[in-house]
């Protein structure tokens, strides 16, 4: 009986590992693509509110015009989310979206004033208050890191192009 349970567990682990190479990166890419596309689409259809927070942007973005930052952020969110969804240029797209997220966290989500870790921890929330709600951007950063370090996974244009180039070089 123990052998049967062990065999089932081994089979399950093997198949979950195989599926994980396909499903895990794809699910991260789809989740992040949705979130960032929605943010970019909101900027596309919305009014530029960056001038009111321009001074909070970290260097060098605080040196650029607010309208340029708005466009840069919007296009990065729209184009990189599409690239993530299809798995094309995934590592570069993840890096760009990490920069966008860090800038957004510094300018909008980080608590304006804090002197202790308990003050800072109060900002670890999801709210619509502006400053002091950095939980969601932190989730995005953590979700982008596996894509940056391991790539798009097997079900992606990156993998397809890689396999194609490998076959070309083998000839």
Automatic annotation (TrEMBL):
Superkingdom, taxonomy of origin? Bacteria
Q: Where in the cell is it found?
A: Cell membrane
Parts of the chain that traverse the membrane:
68-87, 94-112, 138-161
Going by the UniProt record, its keywords in alphabetical order are: Cell membrane, Membrane, Transmembrane, Transmembrane helix
Please report the record's description of how this protein sits within the membrane: Multi-pass membrane protein
A Pfam family (short name) is DoxX
* Entries under InterPro entries matching the protein: DoxX, DoxX-like_oxidoreductase
Its primary localisation, in coarse terms, equals membrane
Report one GO cellular component. Answer: plasma membrane
The UniProt entry, under PANTHER family, shows: DOXX FAMILY PROTEIN, OXIDOREDUCTASE CATD-RELATED
Which protein family is named in the record?
Belongs to the DoxX family.
**What is the protein's name according to its record?**
DoxX family protein
Q: Which organism is it from?
A: Pseudomonas koreensis
């Amino acid at each position: 009986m123990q052998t049967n349970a062990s065999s089932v567990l081994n089979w399950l682990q093997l198949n979950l590992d195989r599926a994980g190479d396909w499903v895990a990166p794809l699910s991260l890419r789809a989740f992040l693509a949705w979130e960032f596309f929605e943010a970019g689409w909101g900027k596309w259809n919305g009014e530029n509110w960056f001038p009111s927070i321009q001074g909070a942007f970290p260097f060098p973005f605080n040196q650029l015009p607010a309208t340029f930052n708005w466009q840069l952020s919007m296009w990065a969110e729209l184009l990189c989310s599409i690239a993530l969804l299809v798995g094309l240029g995934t590592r570069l797209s993840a890096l760009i979206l990490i920069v966008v997220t860090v800038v957004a966290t510094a300018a909008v989500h980080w608590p304006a004033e804090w002197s202790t870790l308990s003050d800072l921890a109060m900002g670890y929330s999801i709210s619509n208050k502006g400053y002091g709600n950095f939980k969601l951007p932190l989730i995005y950063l953590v979700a982008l890191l596996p894509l940056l370090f391991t790539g798009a996974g097997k079900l992606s244009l990156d993998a397809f192009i890689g396999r194609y180039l490998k076959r070309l070089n083998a000839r």
